[in-house]
Design goal:
The complex is a heterodimer of chains A (791) and B (240). By secondary structure, chain A is α+β, with helices and mostly antiparallel strands. Chain A contains 26 helices and 20 strands. Chain A has four domains: 176 residues, no CATH class; 194 residues, no CATH class; 214 residues, no CATH class; 163 residues, no CATH class. Helix content of chain A is 56%, strand content 18%. In chain A, the strands form two sheets. A six-stranded mixed barrel of chain A has the order 2-3-8-5-7-6, surrounded by four helices. In chain B, strand 4 and strand 5 form a beta hairpin. In chain B, helix 4 packs across helix 5, helix 4 runs parallel beside helix 6 and helix 5 crosses helix 6. The longest helix of chain B is centred in the C-terminal third of the chain and has 16 residues. Classes of the chains: A alpha+beta (791), B alpha/beta (240). The interface between A and B is medium-sized, with 34 and 35 residues.
Chain lengths: 791, 240
């Protein structure tokens, strides 16, 4: 049997079921937001499973194509420290998708039925045999290629030769699938013999090793032993690159995920701040309502400590239930999020799971936080004069401060709206807290919208600047020369071809890119300040540059300044004559006369890239012209790659969309909390003023009058939140853009369109009206007699 | 029969027929599984222009009778007729509008809206009735506040008024729609004896002006000053 003190703690919760449920909902959502921190762990667990099932290599080494017999492979497996070895071959080609040649990489597998390292698992269809290829699941997932089993596939080699295959199905391999994400290349699997035939080189160009001991020192030692073993094989000419040693626990894309998690952490912190304000507000209100009861307890002999314990117990009870509910909700949320990320980025099915640390933290926070945040309110309630406490009605009186006086100067409004407006000022602390939560949601919404707008603007600015349809780029080892130029300009379908010489430079410790371009380039340059270089400067090879605004702002550069660039051939000074807003190279480009760049690099007539305008903008025509260019240049020995503008633009928009959608999904939680906070505040107001509602109904107020009073309160709080949220959203936008830049190295402009502020206003108002339905309905449901007797 | 005679007969009937008629009224409150019979068959008639005090011990049902008469509570059984309207037939919305137009209620704890000034509180029933222009409502409220002696405190908030002054504002509010019936549940219960006396004399003046005044009180001395005392005990009318 509970003591009277304990009964008070429990009874109050049962007496006000609506308020209790709201408080529990608030606590549960707050606790659930902690679960975001579990998402990286859940993803990592799923990826570790992938690593195990796929027998991911611990070391990958590149070698010049080397024929390896079964005995050779067995000898490599016998090397101490080697658990398994799998030879790999690959050839870069293009795959015909309609008229377009998309970059592709065909990976040769020695024996699909017997793989020990970097296993390529068949997901649908069957493993490819002779004349067959198998796509990777990431090809469709990322949108680069959606071929299905049974489809015809045409590969185009470096010299333009074509080979036809049939798609046998789809497979999955973690390291190979990552290439699709990173390089936007179509990954296809084939028997090793097919790859050898395509590349014209028998043998394997790589080895994937699993080791007994993945400790870095042991791994390096094992790799050394493998190298010595390879040296005994005829034809081995050494590794072509530094062996890639996978750290224990690492997996392809993990570094990017961790970076992204940092960004998500910012949103999670915002969610936690919202949660803290919400919980604090809710519990403070709960205690404040008990002022009279606290007075009664003190009047009958309870000491302050005893009274405090009653309410601490109440909040502890709430916290316990809220913690459990929130933890369960958090497990569901984190599982859903992890599943979403897993399928979006790695085509991996992330099973529901729990992170014990996060679960423990959730339970602890849920249990401990409510009593802690309620303490100030309990102290305040205990400090009220006893007589005042006994006379308290639970409903705040009107104030006479400046705000209250201002709220009374609203006689032009209908009376019920005036009452609602003035009621907002009765509990200033609570109203401000509710508005703050709404402000956080509005700020977050504005930041997400700004981020999306910035990404779109950046893409549009970047790609809108391009007047060319295709870029053909050669490797630095063999830049384009006059012969290449002639080939290009005489290719059918080419309307105009413009040479560009690009180079990476150092600008005050930051990486930047010099584009040597013509005075009237195939670039729609947009100047924020200054001017473009003129024909004379172009002719004379003047050391002038137009700099992108992003890097100019970062480096504090203005028009008229002289900047020192570190180039491959030494330092060079340039005078800045203009600032552009084309967002090229993520806003780190400097445009310099082509002549100047050629002089600087001592490469007369050279070009690293040609910008080509095709005779037709029809995508099939563009694809055909590009294919022709590649074939003709490859036939002359140039190593080229092409970038088709409409494809690259589409891919960038899709990537940006994923980033902003992900952030928006998390931001939704903050919006949900703000709406719970708003509904909670109005419900509490209704409960507090139940007797007042009875009075109003007694003196003639209709249901719609009562509805309008509380709806006004709710809308005013929401609008106040919207107002505060505008500057908050601007600050958040700047913060997130900065973080995106620093963490994921994507440079977005800071945009804050006024239209988004209106969108936020409409959204806030509509949501507020929706969440107010239930509390307001409750307000008018009371019969006057019941309302007057409400205790 | 001449028209004048018809009118005289109608007036006489109006005067003769009671303003308030309760017949066999019962009220049972239910809280969970608990039931409490507050009224056990009340028959009561109150004529126009009467000043009636409802007395009885705590829990006798006197406040319940008042609530039933004003439509704040609904009877579990029986009929309630006030000024020709069967209250038990009206919906909650109809009751709210009817109350605003026909009854002025004065509560024990004043129950003014804390964010409205004295003038605004006094005009509130007219705002809900949407009767007259804003100017007309404020003029009526101003007049009523002057009647109760608060013409110089129109812009004061309730928190800036004494208990007695707040009760005066409450009385002024009850007069907003010029109702024929004024009811008060312990209207002087929260006032000192001097102020209570002033309030009661104010109610008396309103009664003299033709309003029917009905109030609940514990104070037998105050009750004795009413024109009629109705005693309620254990949910029944036992006297008056």
């Amino acid at each position: 049997m509970l003591s009277a003190e304990h009964r008070v703690s429990v009874a109050d919760l049962l007496r006000r079921p609506a308020r209790t449920i709201f408080t529990l909902l608030t606590l549960a959502i707050a606790v659930a937001s902690i679960s975001f921190f579990a998402v990286p762990t859940l993803i990592d667990d799923a990826m570790q499973d992938e690593v195990r099932e796929g027998r991911l290599a611990d070391v990958a080494v590149g070698i010049r194509p080397l024929e390896l017999s079964d005995a050779d492979l067995a000898a490599l497996e016998d090397v101490p420290g080697v658990a398994a070895v799998e030879p790999r071959s690959s050839v870069d080609a293009r795959v015909l998708i309609g008229e377009r040649r998309a970059p592709a990489r065909v990976i040769g597998i020695r024996d699909f039925a017997d793989q020990d390292v970097d296993v390529v698992r068949v997901e649908s269809g069957s493993a490819p045999g002779p004349g067959e290829l198998m796509a990777d699941v990431q090809d469709e997932n990322t949108g680069v290629y959606d071929g299905a089993a049974g489809d015809d596939v045409t590969l185009v080699g470096a010299a333009g030769e074509q080979a036809d295959f049939t798609l046998s199905g789809r497979g999955r391999s973690l390291p190979d699938g990552e290439q699709v994400q990173d390089e936007k290349v179509v990954v296809l699997y084939a028997p090793a013999a097919t790859v050898a035939a395509l590349s014209g080189e028998p043998g394997y160009g790589g080895l994937a090793l699993r080791l007994d001991d993945t400790d870095p020192a042991a791994a390096r030692a094992t790799v050394e032993r493998v190298r010595r073993q390879l040296e005994t094989f005829p034809g081995f000419e050494g590794f072509t690159n530094l062996p890639e040693i996978r750290a224990p626990g690492d997996w392809p894309g993990k570094a990017d995920t961790e970076q992204f998690s940092q960004l998500l952490g910012v949103i999670t912190v915002l969610a936690l701040i919202s949660a803290a304000v919400l919980v604090s507000n809710t519990l403070s209100t709960l205690v404040a309502e008990q002022t009279r009861e606290i007075g009664v307890m003190r009047a009958v002999g309870a000491r302050r400590r005893q009274v405090a314990l009653v309410y601490l117990r109440t909040t502890l009870l709430l916290g316990a239930v809220g913690a459990v509910a929130g933890t369960l909700l958090g497990i569901l949320m984190s599982s859903a999020l992890a599943r979403y990320f897993g399928s979006t980025y790695w085509a991996v099915d992330v099973a529901p799971g729990i992170d014990p640390t996060v679960v423990l933290a959730s339970l602890l926070v849920g249990l401990v936080a409510p009593p802690l945040v309620a303490l100030p309110a309990i102290r305040r309630a205990l400090s009220v004069d006893l007589r005042e406490a006994l006379e308290a009605t639970g409903s705040a009186t009107g104030g006479t401060d400046a705000l209250d006086r201002a709220l009374r100067r609203t006689s032009f409004l209908p009376r019920v709206v005036q009452i609602g407006l003035r009621n907002v000022g009765r509990r200033k602390r609570r109203s401000l807290a509710t508005a703050a939560i709404v402000a956080l949601a509005v700020g977050n919404l504005l930041a997400v919208l700004a981020l999306a707008q910035g990404a779109t603007d950046s893409t549009r600015a970047s790609w809108g600047s391009h007047l060319e349809d295709v870029q053909i780029t050669t490797s630095n080892r063999a830049p384009f020369d006059d012969r290449a130029r002639l080939t290009i300009v005489t290719t059918p379908g080419v309307a105009e071809a413009e040479p560009v010489l690009k180079n990476t430079v150092d600008l005050g410790g930051r990486e930047a890119f010099v584009w040597g371009v013509e005075q009237d380039p195939l670039l729609d340059y947009r100047l924020a300040e200054g001017r473009w270089f003129d024909a004379e400067e172009d002719r004379d090879g003047a050391r002038v540059a137009v700099i992108e605004r992003n890097i100019a702002q970062l480096a504090g550069i203005e028009v008229g300044d002289t900047v020192d660039l570190g180039t491959a051939v030494g330092g060079a000074s340039f005078r800045i004559i203009g600032i552009a807003t084309n967002q090229q190279e993520d806003g780190t480009a400097l445009y310099v006369p082509l002549t100047t760049t050629r002089d600087l690099l001592d490469r007369p007539a050279a070009a690293s890239t040609y910008w080509i305008r095709t005779e037709s903008r029809d995508t099939d025509q563009v694809d055909r012209t590009t294919s022709l260019l590649e074939d003709r240049l490859a036939a002359q020995g140039y190593e080229v790659s092409s970038e088709i503008r409409y494809v690259a633009e589409r891919d960038e928009v899709a990537a940006n969309s994923t980033l902003t959608t992900t952030i928006a999904v998390l931001g939704f939680l903050i919006v949900a909390m703000s709406m719970v906070g708003l509904a909670n505040a109005i419900t509490t107001n209704v409960l507090e003023r139940t007797r007042e509602i009875g009075i109003l109904r007694s003196i003639g107020a209709r249901a719609r009058d009562v509805r309008r009073i509380f709806t006004t309160e709710g809308i005013v709080l929401a609008l106040l939140g919207w107002l505060i949220g505008i500057p908050l959203g601007y600050l958040l936008t700047r913060l997130i853009v900065r973080l995106v830049w620093e963490i994921v190295d994507v440079r977005l402009p800071v945009v804050f369109p006024p239209g988004n502020v209106l969108v936020a206003l409409v959204g806030t108002t509509v949501l507020a009206l929706l969440v107010l339905v239930l509390p307001v309905r409750r307000a008018v449901r009371f019969r006057p007699g019941d309302a007057l007797r409400y205790a | 029969m001449s028209e004048a005679t018809t009118q005289q007969q109608a007036a006489a009937e109006t005067v003769r027929s009671p303003l308030i008629e309760l017949s066999g009224v019962e009220k049972t409150y239910r809280t969970g599984k608990l039931e409490y019979r507050a009224l056990r068959g009340v028959d009561l008639s109150i004529d126009r222009g009467e000043m009636v005090a409802l007395v009885g011990p705590s829990g006798s049902g006197k406040s319940t009778v008042l609530n039933i008469i004003t439509g704040i509570d609904r009877p579990t059984a029986g009929t309630v007729t006030v000024d020709g309207s069967r209250l038990d037939d009206l919906s909650e919305e109809e009751l709210a509008v009817w109350r605003g137009a026909n009854v002025g209620i004065v509560f024990q704890f004043f129950q003014l809206l804390p964010t409205l000034t004295a003038l605004e509180n006094a005009a509130l029933p007219l705002d809900f009735l949407r009767r007259g222009s804003k100017h007309d409502r404020f003029e009526r409220a101003r007049h009523n506040l002057e009647v109760v002696g608060l013409g110089d405190k129109l812009e004061h908030l309730p928190a800036e008024l004494s208990g007695g002054e707040q009760q005066r504002v409450a009385i002024a509010r009850s007069l907003a729609a010029d109702p024929g019936l004024i009811v008060g549940d312990e209207p002087t219960g929260n006032l000192d004896s001097v102020t209570a006396d002033e309030m009661f004399r104010l109610l008396g003046r309103l009664n003299d002006e033709g309003k029917t005044v009905l109030f609940v009180t514990h104070d037998r001395d105050l009750a004795a000053r009413a024109g009629r005392v109705v005693e309620i005990r254990d949910g029944r009318v036992v006297g008056g």
